[in-house]
Amino acid sequence: MPRNARKFKIEVGGFYHVIKRGINRGKIFQSKQDYSRFIFGLELFNSIQPINLWLLLSRSWDSPSTASMVGKRIQRARKNKGEPIVEIHAFCLMPNHIHLILREIREDGISDFMRKFGGFSTYFNKRHNRTGPLFEGRFKAVPIQGDEQLANTFRYVHTNPVELWEPKWKEFQVANSGEAIKNLERYRPSSYLDYIGKENFPSFVTKDFFLEFFGGEKTCQLAVEDWIKFKAHGISADLEMFE
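Structure tokens predicted for Transposase IS200-like domain-containing protein (243 residues):
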């Protein structure tokens, strides 16, 4: 059955909030290796050059010798990457869905980029002894228009993990905002650590835009923390800089 056409065209130069969910809201990540493999995809698929991630990461990482070999393969792949097909401005991987902030920099770049993750289903099914589709249809893309929506989307993407510790936080029920903020700084499958100056994965995120937009690492951090506090107290934090 053919897919319904999008109600809008993804335009070169535009920013988009991209969401991809597991089928029936099922998990798409069950281990650290699952997260790592997807993150390698975010980095290495962003190229005009094709890459076989299955072959690149085909050996087990369980022993030091194979881990070292895989590491060398990855370094070679990074060195030989072609020109990017999108700009990745933010990402957050949740157990059953992903959030990305992408900028279209060439015609069909976002669609081509997301299509490359089809092989993740094959990897996941083989590793976890399952069959059938992993993702729920094609990705959703929401155009981001204007400064307010840019700021809100940045905060929304990076605060998504809070629901893992505070399940009712989107209903303005946060038991401990301070602990939620600390946990967020320990959540690695996200670009938040890149934006607040903490060491994480080798960074492939285009940070300059949002760092300039907010005014630096500290104000990026405050934007996220203030949003959590706003949710915790149900009152507006000092967000005048975004108005």
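The longest strand covers residues 86-94.
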